[in-house]
Amino acid sequence: MPNVPLEQRVEIEELMARYCWALDTGDFDGYADTFAEDGWLSHWPQGKCVGREGLKRATDSLWYDRPNHYLGRQHRFSAVIMSPEDGDLAKGVRIKAFWSILQHDVETFENRVFGMGTWDTLAVKGSDGEWRFKSVEVDLWINGQVPWVGDPKAWKNPPAQAAE
Q: pLDDT by residue (tens digit) across 9-19?
C-alpha cells in the first residue's frame, strides 16, 4: 500500500487537530473551514449533513439542543491510518482512526469517557493547496456495534454482522 508523504501527513494531522479544537470549543467558522465547500458529515443522530448549511444544522443540534451537554468535550484520535485514496494521492487521503471523547461535566466537575467509535474520512487538497475534509463518517459504538474481523467466538453473543 502506498504511503502518504510525511509532510502531507503532518498537514492532515494539523487539519484533524483544528477540527477537534473548533468542534470542542463551539467555533463554527473554524469547524466549517476544515471541510471542502461541498464536504459532508455523517453522524448519528443528525444523519448526512452536506455543505455549510448541513454542518450548521449538525453543530446546532450537538451544541445547543441540550444546555451544558456538549461543554467540556475533548475529541481524541488514535491508531490513525492514512492512505492515498485508491492508491492515488491526487484523489485525496483516506483516514481511518479510532476516536474517543473525554468529557468534563461543567455541573458536577466529574471527568469521564463520553463515547468511542471509529472515523472514516476523506481529505482532499483544494485549489488553494490546503487540505480539507470531503467526507467525515463517524461511527459511534452503540448497542455493541464494534468492528471485529476475527473469529465470532470472541463474542459471547455475536451480533449479526460479527457472525457473518
A: 999 999 999 99
